[in-house]
Amino acid sequence: MKIFNKENIYKADKITIKNQNIESEVLMERAAIQIFGWLKTQLQENFPTIHLFCGIGNNGGDGLALARLLLNDGYEVEVYVVNFSDKRSDDFLLNLARLKENKLWPEFIGENSDLPQLPEGDIVIDAIFGIGLNRSAAGWIKELIQHINTSKTYVIAVDVPSGLYLDKAPDDKEAIVKANTTITFQFPKLVFFLPETAEFAGNVEIVDLGLDREFINTTTSEAFLISRNDAQRLYKPRAKFAHKGDFGHCLIVGGSYGKIGSVVLATKAALRAGAGKVTSLVPECGYDILQSTVPEAMVITAFNDNFLIPTEINFKPQSSVFGIGAGKGKKTAKFLEQLLTDAHSPLLIDADGINILAEHTDLLELLPEKSILTPHPGELKRLLGDWKDDFEKLNKAKDFSKKYKVVLVIKGAFSITIADDNLYINTTGNPGMATAGSGDVLSGIISSLVAQGYDATIAAVFGVYLHGKAGDYAAQENGFEFVIAEDIVNNLGNAYKSLFQQHPEN
Ligand SMILES: NC(=O)C1=CN([C@@H]2O[C@H](COP(=O)(O)OP(=O)(O)OC[C@H]3O[C@@H](n4cnc5c(N)ncnc54)[C@H](OP(=O)(O)O)[C@@H]3O)[C@@H](O)[C@H]2O)[C@@H](O)CC1
Ligand SMILES: [K+]
């Protein structure tokens, strides 16, 4: 699903009005109807008081239209106009008049007004600012936002939590509504998925306004949200007469004394994700462990008991993983250099592999094109240096990916894959996956997909999706705390199957 920037959202709005030959207020009504429908479904037979805070732009107009629909359906509503300017939009004014026709006169809140009481259990609709925010909320508007945030109401933001910019980091986090749910129109917004700002949006619901399909399809976007429909399209079906040679040979290089488990997990994951053959290369201390825990894999060893040293590899894998559990000793770093120099196919570099690259930046030049790096934020910092906010982090990551022609997967609650100037944001996964070995499983999955012939960017995007989905199945069964990395591997089958189920369970 495309994530549009502010300019393209406004364009989509305009083109729809023109092509569908409608007035702009029709889109506002569609927006209000969508939120009304969502609320009604959630509330069922409950009728809490609903407090609607409406600005004077079109976000406020949406709020007023929603207030009318709720009022006419018998809900108890309290409507406040947050009267920060006299530049009221036409559709705001139209909906204000319609509300008055329905005998509801909103209360106007200004600089010296008392703030309304917001009793626990009531609902707040935040329609103060939408995508038109152009500076931080200040003064009494900020106080109102804080009043909403400290209340014990359930807060639903219309389109965007008021005070949150779409295209830059907040300059005052105290001046942003903290929503429980954000119902956003047509397009997901990037800031809802970035670590510093996701908390303001809460649960995100995307509702359709019927905006111009052709414009959406033909307009390019730099960012995408990957949901089930997108993942489904990435899947490569298997031919009936396929044989294991068609699904590639994946090499997993890693491990050191006490850390052979990481290679076991990645090896299993690579096999379960579908690689035709998997060979693991470990120090000798790992030989028995791998042979007995993963009999399906082949094992070769470095001539050293406890850590990896340069070792000759006498076959050409279609993909390789380097770094998991490897440590970053001198000889291990030398081995990475050898692997990079001899590589015939993209490498996936994780964990200590990334730390070695950060310490020996000359090695970066040797990375084969389309290699994949999968850092968590700490490893990314070692690679890129510090950043002041999420936007700077993404820009630095994009520059890095372009410079070295590699795919970056930044791991997190919403993992982000960066390649060719594009961002792909993952939607699967859960806090149960914050557990040892989870990243090793991801490395195995992605590398397995590369071995099977998936393009590196697609392998990363699809692999991250499958990994999260498998983790969701694991957590669904036994709860977040119970999940260990092995459970993620064991649910990969469910993750694949869910792509094509009519009604997936999660
Ligand atoms: N696109 C679509 O498809 C559809 C969009 N729709 C809806 O429209 C929304 C966008 O509406 P919008 O453009 O009128 O902007 P909005 O967010 O209401 O605010 C603008 C006002 O805020 C003001 N202002 C800004 N910052 C401020 C500050 N810190 N402190 C004080 N004032 C500040 C600014 O004033 P100014 O800067 O000019 O002083 C201006 O008056 C969108 O989010 C969605 O809800 C739907 O109706 C249907 C289809
Ligand atoms: K809002």
TrEMBL record:
Q: Which domain of life is it from?
A: Bacteria
Keyword check for NAD:
yes
The entry's free-text remark on the cofactor is: Binds 1 potassium ion per subunit.
Molecular-function GO terms, alphabetical: ADP-dependent NAD(P)H-hydrate dehydratase activity; ATP binding; kinase activity; metal ion binding; NAD(P)HX epimerase activity
State where (6S)-NADPHX binds: 58-62, 130-136, 159, 325, 376, 440
* Domain YjeF N-terminal stretches: 9-217
Q: Which InterPro entries does this chain map to?
A: Carbohydrate_kinase_pred_CS (IPR017953), CARKD (IPR000631), Nnr (IPR030677), Ribokinase-like (IPR029056), YjeF_N_dom (IPR004443), YjeF_N_dom_sf (IPR036652)
Task: Name the reaction it catalyses.
Answer: (6S)-NADHX + ADP = AMP + phosphate + NADH + H(+); (6R)-NADPHX = (6S)-NADPHX; (6S)-NADPHX + ADP = AMP + phosphate + NADPH + H(+); (6R)-NADHX = (6S)-NADHX
List ligand-binding residues for AMP: K411, G412, A413, F414, S415, G439
Its GO biological process terms? metabolite repair; nicotinamide nucleotide metabolic process
Q: Which cofactor does it need?
A: K(+); Mg(2+)
- Enzyme Commission (EC) number: 4.2.1.136, 5.1.99.6
The UniProt annotation places K(+) binding at N59, D126, S162
Domain YjeF C-terminal per the UniProt entry, residue ranges: 227-499
**Pfam families named among the record's database cross-references:** Carb_kinase (PF01256), YjeF_N (PF03853)
Keywords, sorted A to Z: ATP-binding, Isomerase, Kinase, Lyase, Metal-binding, Multifunctional enzyme, NAD, NADP, Nucleotide-binding, Potassium, Transferase
Q: What does this protein do?
A: Catalyzes the epimerization of the S- and R-forms of NAD(P)HX, a damaged form of NAD(P)H that is a result of enzymatic or heat-dependent hydration. This is a prerequisite for the S-specific NAD(P)H-hydrate dehydratase to allow the repair of both epimers of NAD(P)HX. Catalyzes the dehydration of the S-form of NAD(P)HX at the expense of ADP, which is converted to AMP. Together with NAD(P)HX epimerase, which catalyzes the epimerization of the S- and R-forms, the enzyme allows the repair of both epimers of NAD(P)HX, a damaged form of NAD(P)H that is a result of enzymatic or heat-dependent hydration.
User: What family is this protein classified in?
Assistant: In the C-terminal section; belongs to the NnrD/CARKD family.
Question: Which PANTHER family does its entry note?
Answer: ATP-DEPENDENT (S)-NAD(P)H-HYDRATE DEHYDRATASE, ATP-DEPENDENT (S)-NAD(P)H-HYDRATE DEHYDRATASE FAMILY MEMBER
Q: How does it assemble?
A: Homotetramer.
Its name, as the record gives it, is: Bifunctional NAD(P)H-hydrate repair enzyme
Organism equals Mesonia phycicola
